[in-house]
């Protein structure tokens, strides 16, 4: 079975180190994520944090790969639920850098396998694209202005606001 993927990227007029220092800092999502209410570090053997969205939904992010100045990979989802895989990649360019976020969403067992392709195409992918665009716009806004983004700064999201 082919793994589904949704990706978005944005050009940032900043050096890789500035972007990396931002996205890898403690409680980083509170700086630039427009749907983040709280981003708590979880102390333990593995690198994990908790993302509490504006609507109260709480996800755990467990980092599976950590490559300074290049990116990281993680699994995200409810504590004891299914997890989606997420990949953040930074590419150095002559005038700045480009950052790409890719989500490989888990397949919900609540949706019939016959309807899933339609739900994925018309609901899941468009909503994930909107989500990623807002997160990337938030990151761009933060690194270029050194100002925290406001909640829902780029519009509300039906799953997270």
Structural summary, described in words:
The longest helix is centred in the last third of the chain and has 30 residues, at 116-145. It is built from three helices and seven strands; from the N terminus they run βααββββββα. It has helices at residues 16-23, 29-32, 116-145; strands spanning 6-12, 36-42, 48-53, 58-67, 71-77, 83-93, 96-104. The chain is globular and about 45 Å long. The chain has 161 residues and is an alpha+beta fold.
Shape: globular
- Strand content bin: 35-45%
The assembly state of the depicted protein chains is: single chain
Biggest sheet, strands in spatial order?
A: 1-7-6-5-4-3-2
**pLDDT below 50 for ≥5 consecutive residues: which ranges?**
none
Helix percentage range: 25-40%
What about the largest sheet?
Answer: 7 strands, antiparallel
Mean pLDDT, to the nearest integer, reads 94
Termini, distance in Å? 32 Å
The total of helices stands at: 3
Structural class: alpha+beta
> What is the succession of H and E elements?
EHHEEEEEEH
Radius of gyration: 16 Å
Number of strands: 7
